[in-house]
C-alpha cells in the first residue's frame, strides 16, 4: 500500500514517550535481543574492577584497550587496575565518543548481554526507573571481607522494588579471607538474611576475586572446595527474556487514518500476535471487530504480525478506535481499573502530595489521574516502608492513582513494556516513573473519589487568552491596601485583555468561608480554601489576585504548595501605625476598645514576608502608583512565557 506513505511516516516517527523513550533510545535492538544485566554494589566493593575484568576475560575489549589499561596502571605504580577501563569508557562518554551512555554490550557464548552501568547513586536511582528497570538479572557485588554495607542494602531494596527476578551475588575479594570456606560461607549467610528480608532470593553465590580473575571466566584453583558456577557460567544460566510475541496481544492504537474508502488503525504491537480473521476487542468500550487486513511498510499485506512490528490494520465493521485504545483478544484481556496502585519513583524537585493531578502516559494512551493516596514511602536509609504524607524528590513510594475512567493495562513486569506508566505535569514534563502494579481495591469505609481533569490543554488556553494563568497572593495588614490595590489592578488588567479575578478575604468570608472566624485554625482553613479556588481558576487560565491578610508564613507556604507553579507572593507593605491611622473600617478602634478580639497586629500576629516576589510600598505611595507597580509585575509574569510558548 505505497499510497499510504504518510501513515507509515507517522508510525515510524512515533517515539515512545517518557520512560520508554529513554529506555529504548539506544537499545531498541538490544532490548529485543540482548539480556540486560545490572551490576550493583557498595562503593569500593569492586564493581568497576569486575566490569573491566569481565569484559577482558570474555574477550569483549577492543584492540588496544588492554595495553592502554596496563599503561595507565604502570604509571600509577599498580599491577593492572581493571577499573581504569570503566574510567576510560566514562571519559569517552563525557566526550560524547560513545553514543550509548549507560549500556556496555558484551557477548558470551554466542549470546548478547548488555551491562547497565549505574555510575553514581543518584543516577543509579534514575537509571533503575528510566533505563535499567528492564534489567533481566542483577549482579550484586559484595566485598566478602566487609560484608553487606549501607549501599548493599539500598541496592537490594531497589532490586526488590523494581522486581528483578534473577540475582547473582558475587562475593568479591575472597583473597582477603584467604579463600577460607567457613569465612566465605558466613558472609553468604548474612547476605542471604538481608535478601530474605526483602523477599529476594539469590540464584547463586559466586566467591571470586575480580582483581585476579578467580571464578570470573575461569574456575579458581585457589578454592577447590567451590563447585558452583563461575560468574560467566552463572550469566549463561540467566533465563533469556521471554519472547514478547508469545504473550497476549496488545496493540495500542497510535492513530487512525482514512484513505479513500478505507480506514487504517495504526500502531506498534507491544506484545503477542495478530492474524487476519482474528476477532479483537477495542478499548474499554469493548467493541468487537474482525481484523480484515494487516498492511506493512513497503511490504505486501501480511496474514499475521507480531510484537515489535508497526502495522496498520483495517477492521470489520469499520469502527473508529481512539488513540490509546488497546486492541486485544477477548479471552486475554488486560487489567481494567479506575484506581491503580503504582510503585512510584518521584523525579520532581518538590515533594509529591495527595490531591495533585497529572497525565498518566501509558504507551499511546494518556489518562488524567489524581493521587488519591500515598500508601507507603520507602525510607532508603533503613529500607523500611512507612506511612507518609509526601514523597520526597528521588523517593520511592506506593501510591494510588485515580482516574475518572477505566485504565487498561498489564501489571508492570521487568523486562517488558508492561505497565510502564509515566507521570507528566501540566507543562508536559515527566515528573515520575510510575510502574502500574495492579488495580487498587476499595478499603472498607474509604472515601473514594475520582477527580476528573480538563481536556483543554494549558497551551490551548494560553493561546486563546494570550496570557498564562497565575496566582498573585497579596498579603498585608488590615488596611494596608490589599483590596484597594487588587481592585485597581483588576480594572487595568481587564482593560488590557487579561482574564482576571479577585478573591478577597472579606468577600470569601461572606459566602464560601462564612463558617470561619479568626482563630489560627480558622485562618489556615480560610487560606486553604482560597488557595484551592485560586488553583482551579489558575488551571482555567485566569489571572487570580488573592487578597488575604494570611498573617502566618506557614499558611502562605501552604497556599504556595497547593497552587504550585505560577504562585507569586506580593507583600502589600504599610506599617501598623499607618494602617491603624487609616482604619478604613473602624476595626482597629474596635479592637483597641476590646470589641473584637484576635485582631491582626493588635492581639494576633502578623509575620511579614521575608523575600516576597514583589513588595509594594503602600504607606506613603499613592494608590495609582502602587497599582501601576502591581500591574506591571503581573503583566510581565503572565505574558512572557505565554509568548514564548506561542513561538515554540
Ligand atoms: N480579628 C480580625 N483579624 C483580622 N481581620 C478581621 C478580624 N475581624 C474581622 N476582620 C475582617 O476580616 C478581614 C480579614 O479576612 P482575611 O480572610 O483576609 O483574614 S485571614 O487571611 O484569614 O487572616 C479583614 O479585612 P481587611 O481589612 O481587608 O484585611 C477585616 O475586614
Ligand atoms: N498606596 C496605597 N495602596 C492602597 N491603599 C491605599 C494606598 N494609600 C492609601 N490607601 C488607602 O488605604 C486603605 C486600604 O484599605 P483596604 O484596601 O481595605 O486594605 P486591606 O484590604 O489591606 O485591608 C484605603 O482606604 C485606601 O484608599
Automatic annotation (TrEMBL):
- Residue numbers annotated as active site: 550 (phosphoserine intermediate)
| Pathway membership | Sulfur metabolism; hydrogen sulfide biosynthesis; sulfite from sulfate: step 2/3
Enzyme class name: transferase
Residues that, per the record, bind ATP: 476-483
Looking at the record, the residues that make up the Tr-type G domain are 32-243
Any one GO biological process: sulfate assimilation
| PROSITE patterns assigned to the protein according to its UniProt record, in alphabetical order | G_TR_1 (PS00301), G_TR_2 (PS51722)
Q: What is its EC number?
A: 2.7.1.25
UniProt keywords (A-Z) are: ATP-binding, GTP-binding, Kinase, Multifunctional enzyme, Nucleotide-binding, Phosphoprotein, Transferase
GO MF annotation terms: adenylylsulfate kinase activity; ATP binding; GTP binding; GTPase activity; sulfate adenylyltransferase (ATP) activity
Catalysed reactions, as listed in the record: sulfate + ATP + H(+) = adenosine 5'-phosphosulfate + diphosphate; adenosine 5'-phosphosulfate + ATP = 3'-phosphoadenylyl sulfate + ADP + H(+)
Highest taxon of source: Bacteria
Q: According to its UniProt entry, what is the function of this protein?
A: Proposed to provide activated sulfate for transfer to Nod factor. ATP sulfurylase may be the GTPase, regulating ATP sulfurylase activity. APS kinase catalyzes the synthesis of activated sulfate.
Task: Provide the assembly information.
Answer: Sulfate-activating enzymes, NodP and NodQ, may be physically associated.
What family is this protein classified in?
A: Belongs to the APS kinase family. In the N-terminal section; belongs to the TRAFAC class translation factor GTPase superfamily. Classic translation factor GTPase family. CysN/NodQ subfamily.
Q: What is this protein called?
A: Adenylyl-sulfate kinase
- Organism name: Acetobacter peroxydans
